[in-house]
Amino acid sequence: MKVKTLIATAVFLLTSAAANAGTIVYGTGSGNPWSNLTNDAAMNSAFGESNWLKSYGFSTTLFNDADFVFLDGSDGNADAFSSFLAGNLSFVQNYVANGGHLFLNAAPNVGGSFDMGFGVRLNYGNYAADTVYVTGAGVAAGLTADGLATTYHGNSFSHASVSGAISDLINDGKGNTVFGAMQYGKGFVAFGGQTTTNFHSPSPDGAALLVNQLQYVAGPQSNDVPEPASLALIGMGLLAAAAARRKSAGK
Hints:
By secondary structure, the chain is α/β, with parallel strands linked by helices. It folds into 2 domains: about 1-20 and about 225-250, no CATH class; about 20-225, Class I glutamine amidotransferase (GATase) domain (Rossmann fold, 3-Layer(aba) Sandwich), CATH 3.40.50. Helix content is about 35%, strand content about 25%. The protein contains 6 helices and 13 strands. The chain has a 10-stranded mixed sheet with strand order 2-1-3-4-12-11-10-7-8-13, sandwiched between helices. Strands 5-6-9 form a 3-stranded antiparallel sheet. Helix 1 runs antiparallel to helix 6 and helix 2 (about 40-45) crosses helix 5. It is globular and about 35 Å long. The protein starts with a helix and ends with a helix.
């Protein structure tokens, strides 16, 4: 294969990956949790402004053509969120099983504990964590990339814990997970009980932590399409192989 053909192939792979990229979605209830836009700011930092869609109200239409969906049912949105999940658990689980990436978070101010699907339960009631810790697994997952703190405080950092067969990535130091994740079929799903980052300190680490969480869940754990950097390496490998064949042929 000629070098020009190899280069063209690498370019085609890169452009095809971009063309096939799905939608990134953030959905919440009828109003922003705690009447602030810190989730929106985190989405902008994680994916770039105008590279994601926002929706008020929980609906299965949010999942159409989406590669990554972040649903936050915190504050007064918890009842609507739990009702949506209860009525659509099979749909949501099938979305992830077929390769979707999903982050379900709720720090309720109303209602009670509820089933989040995937064998995971959100535990509300009198639970609240003012201090949380990024675990060793969370550090390995990149949640503290760029030197972020591993201990965080808030009033409260979380209003609920999550339990099930999930990796414990952030916890309260008392055996309660406030952010965890799992592989599910071809996809990846994370669960949290976190409040919005205006309650989290130290700053700006608290805001940056959510950005890293979003990027981690949306990342390529179950993505069959290579990342652009990986595609570039493929192209370089193809070129190196071609050069080696030319050198061998010239002997």
